[in-house]
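Hi R.,

Here are the chain sequences for the assembly we discussed:
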Amino acid sequence: MGIGEAFAILISTIFVYNFVLSRFLGLCPYMGVSKDTGSAIGMGMAVIFVMTLASAVTWPVYRFLLAPSTSNLWYQIFGGDPASYDLTRVLRTITFILVIAALVQFVEMFIRTVSPGLYRALGIYIALITTNCAVLGVAVLNVDMFFQDAQPVAASYLKSVLQGFGAGVGFMLAMVLMSAIRERLDLADVPEPLKGVPIAFIVAGLMSMAFLGFAGLI
Amino acid sequence: MNAPASREFTKGFSKSNPVFVLLLGLCPTLAVSVTVHNAVGMALAMTFVLVCSNVIISLARDIIPPKVRIPCFIVVIATFVTIVELVMQAYMPPLYKSLGIFVPLIVVNCIILGRAEAFASKNAVGASLLDGLGMGFGFGWALVLLATVREILGHGTFFGYELVPGFQPALIMILPPGAFLSLGLMLGWINWRRSRRARRRQDTAPPLKLE
Amino acid sequence: MKAETKEQPLVLVVVLAVVCALAGLALGFVYQLTGPSIHIQKQKADRAALLAVHPGASPEGLKLVKTEHEAHGEQFEYHEVYDKPLDDDTKELIGYACEGRAQGYSSTIVVTVGLSPDASTITGIKITAQQETPGLGANCEEVESDTYIWNIFSPRAKAQAPKPWFQSQFSGRSIDGLVPEGKSYKDVRALSGATITTNAVVRATLDAVETFSTATSLGQVDAETSATWPEAEGGGEE
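And here is the predicted structure of the full complex:
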């Protein structure tokens, strides 16, 4: 996997297929936390961290526990025909969400013990991200897009982690932009029925339109 | 117990509509409302998962210790989501293809976990069942409403059937910006109706604001 | 259960384990029921694609051929398509079919390409997988529908077969006829506003042709025939 391909993945997840504005993932925290730039940045950092880590952990779980191949752990323990150990359809959703939930718990505990200062800044947001559709969404997208049996393992793994990272960065970008606009929107003369959430959605629509302009970049 | 029971069901439509009032489950709402066909499919899938998980969690509410309740809820919900995935792949593959990643994402739909936590774990099975049905249909109703607007304006069709000959649809409506704009304007309209009704009743119903 | 017993770690673990076990059982049961259907759906889709690119083919006359590269073991597959069931000795080869892929705008586009018996002409293409932009790139699979909403129940509406105009422009083209012209390809009617998707479909078609020529030059490893596939239910599916 060359640097060009890595770059293409980053550009596409941050700009062209921004997870919030194009793929509609992570809207609840997006609308909830983007009221001021400080918390938007904090949430953004937490999301980048969790999404990258989630991508890094769910991919090996998928490959070694669920997917039918010679590296499948169940096959190595029990033998038989590697193709018959296909747990992808049945266990993917449950395994991913449990892994992500457990991962986030550990990360929270770890940060709380190691760096109370960091925990004060990011801790609350991390709890919010557990059941965020963006994290599960990026994990599922990774295996859908990059897990093909013919692909070299290392490249596939790197692409998945890179996509997780890029998705988080894109999320933070969209949130920070939105928070800057919303801070000024609070002072603007918005018609009464549109105040609050409706105008936020309209702004998101305009931002999404702007991001459509990145189409064809890669 | 008729009046309270029916209220459990109808509150999901207007008073506590998960999309328009509680602002939950926004991701699938915007993503799936491209065509009415997809919207109906998603709504049915969601309602199935919501009702089943509400019932099971309500049945087990005295057995599950509070400390592990969230993981237990997640496992129950994920099981039903996987069942829906398998059934869809087996009998309705085109629908499964068009709903894409939003089928497994039903598991993290805030509505389902929210109702499990707020209602099913504290109420009897019957009430939980009705609550699930009401919330599910309320969600479906919001989804179909949004999808109708987007499909008619963006595709020129309704449920796949052409409406007006020679109509050039506005492509933006089926792209992401159209979704955001439609929902924003719809919420604004709902706000306006509420404040008009409140002004008539001399109440104060504050417009939707996210705290 | 008493409140204090509920808090003990052992109880927590046991409850969680029981819940997971029950979930696993439920899933296993449902998978038993739906697994075969899922498999059948995949085969139906494959078969429908093959029949779409070779209109005269017999559903029992499809043979999957697998070949393998001796040195690095990479496998290739293609289909031989006959006009009569495989056990019929009067059957004739009406062509081949091969799958090709290319990166489109927002997804990998997978195309099944039908080739003539001398592998010089494309009999047709069928896009089997794409997740392009709805209204733009996704129109590559678009079927021009003439069914208006007030015609739902009229017999005329039912009689019209949908025409996928973008894909049908490749029928009857020579494989050398897809010539690059600047950034796109010559004589290919593009999708309006979706040149990336258009070019990707052409690239996927060329990839299929190339895969076929690679596959036929290698040694045959295995063959699977559609005679062993389960019966297709109903008539055509789309």
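Residues 13 and 167 of chain A are 5 Å apart (CA to CA). The mean pLDDT of chain A is 84.

Let me know if anything looks off.

Best,
T.
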